[in-house]
Amino acid sequence: APDDADPCPAEPGAPEDGFCPPPEEDEVAESGPAFSLLPDWFLDLLRSGAVRATTEVEVQGLSFDVDRPYNQVWCYLRFGDGPVVTIGQFEAIDETHWDIAEWVGGEDSHIWVPVGDSLEISLSCMAIGEWPGGGESVYSLGEVSVSHPSDDWDGQAFQATSGGGDGWFRAGYRMCSPSCEGAGIPAPIIHTQYRWLGRERLVWAWYGNPEEITGYMVYVDGARTDYVSRNAVEIDDYLPACGETREIAVTAARVSPTEIVESAFSNVWMLEGEPCPYSMRVTFDVLDVHDPPADEDGLHRPGPIYGEFWLATEDRVRGLEFNACWCYVGPGATLWGTCDGLELTRRSYDIQNDIFGWIEREMASCLGSGCRSDDFFAPPTNQLTIEVPRDGTVTIGARIMDCDERLNPSDTLFERTVPIRGVMEDGALLPPGDYLLNGDYADLYFRIETFPGGP
Predict the structure, then answer these.
(1) What distance in Å separates the CA atoms of residue 222 and residue 241, rounded to the nearest whole number?
(2) Which residues are registered as beta bridge partners of 450?
(3) What is the arrangement of strands in the sheet containing 189-196, beginning at the earlier edge strand?
(4) Which of 2, 125, 155, 306 is the most buried (most CB within 10 A)?
(5) Looking at the predicted structure, is the pLDDT value of residue 18 above 80?
(6) Mean pLDDT lowest for which of 46-50, 59-63, 107-111?
């Protein structure tokens, strides 16, 4: 192009770019009849970023409930960097529900959001209620701050609960671009989960014209699972397993033989499974005898013995009891009463084989009645398993007693307990390992394993 017709004579440019350098990707496009009508000073503002293209969004209040009855409720609302606006006082619907729709919605709730930005909403609320000592007092109901990208501006419902106040409020709302008028069927608001007659139920509210719909579609984890005519559904079949979550949403729907018309999705209601149990298994391995005291005969030979091992939490106890002791308790027992059973004549005893196993072999060797081993008993295993409290400890304990002849009180050979935390504060499980309980005359070796699931 000749210089007198070239808009950019000092810079190279192709004819399709108007003989100027091609625009950068983030530059405002200036082609088309609309831009040809814009004055140069406004185009300069667009290029500089001082003025940005915007999208119109309407925010519509759907529901508003509070933690307890109040006499008056009002709020302070702010969109983005705009001014703080007082809304209310609200009209009471019942003791804990207030009408926010009159104040949030329509022409006064249209916002222009820069293209590419999220819509920021801040809401803080106050209330006047009865003071416990008499009279009235002002209470803070806390505040919420939320951010919604443009994908949220399709009429779907949201719910936000406040924090940081003397009480709380929960607000339901939706956003539509450019307007909620003509945006189709309004979305429901899920607000309550409760148990009734042994069944778990989920309830929602819908603020539209009942003649526009025939019922509601229920979605679980994004899949349509049910259609109901009322604003409630039983959810026992959808409750997640322990440690898992599921998401439920509903739509208001108009169903006819030829079509199904649905609203945008409601707010998402999260179903949380019960915390998964954790269990602790303790194996009582070895009893190591050392420096036993002399008995009534002056012998350093403990026994016969009996005792127990146990695990205990605040609400349950698991135990293993054994007896390898028989004592004569008849006439003259205080003079010549004797005891018979397992005596600990060496240092180390495997609890399963050398103690429980010895008892079982003695019991099996008795071929008739009247055997001294008739009084013996032992558990089939040296392991105990118990459910682990998440915020507490498991007490591991053992007691080994030494039978004394002539009806003398039994001596305590070993008695110790130790609290063990199976689940750490960060949720990690205690790693498996071998442990030792030291006693005056014996030591107990045991192994701990923690694992997910019930005992």
Answers:
(1) 18
(2) 280
(3) 189-196, 199-205, 232-234
(4) 125
(5) no
(6) 46-50
- Give the integer Cα–Cα distance in Å for 190 and 215: 15
User: What value does the mean pLDDT of the chain take?
Assistant: 87
Q: How many CB atoms lie within 10 A of CB 36?
A: 8
Which of 215, 216, 279, 268 has its CA nearest to residue 245? 268
**Mean pLDDT value across residues 110-114:** 89
pLDDT band at 446; cut points 50, 70, 90: very high
Residue 99 has pLDDT above 80, yes or no: yes
DSSP string, 335-354: HH--EEE----SSEEEIIII
E-assigned strand segments in 197-275: 199-205, 215-220, 223-228, 232-234, 245-255, 260-262, 269-272
Amino acid (one-letter) located at 107: E
Burial grade of 179 (CB within 10 A; 0-12, 13-18, 19 or more): middle
For residue 46, the surrounding DSSP H or E stretch is helix 40-48
Instruction: Return d(Cα 170, Cα 123) in angstroms, integer.
Output: 11
**CA geometry: angle at 349 spanning 348 and 350, to 5°?**
130
pLDDT at 20 over 70: no
pTM beyond cutoff 0.85: no
- List helix spans (H) across 349-396: 357-365
* Cα–Cα distance for residue pair 97/174, rounded to 1 Å: 18
DSSP per-residue string spanning 18-40: TTSPPPPTTSPP--SHHHHTS-H
The identity of residue 42, as a single letter, is F
State the Cα–Cα distance between residues 124 and 143, nearest whole angstrom.
Answer: 4
pLDDT in tens, 263-295: 989 989 999 988 888 999 999 999 999 988 877
Cβ 437 vs Cβ 286: under 8 Å: no
Q: Give Cα separations from 205 to 59, 77, 126, 214, 320 (angstroms).
A: 18, 23, 24, 15, 56
CA distance 205 to 233: 12
pLDDT value for 9? 66
**Measured CA distances, 322 to 269, 313, 325, 370, 399 (Å):** 53, 22, 9, 19, 11
Q: Which DSSP state fits 304?
A: S
Choice between 335 and 27, residue whose per-residue pLDDT is larger: 335
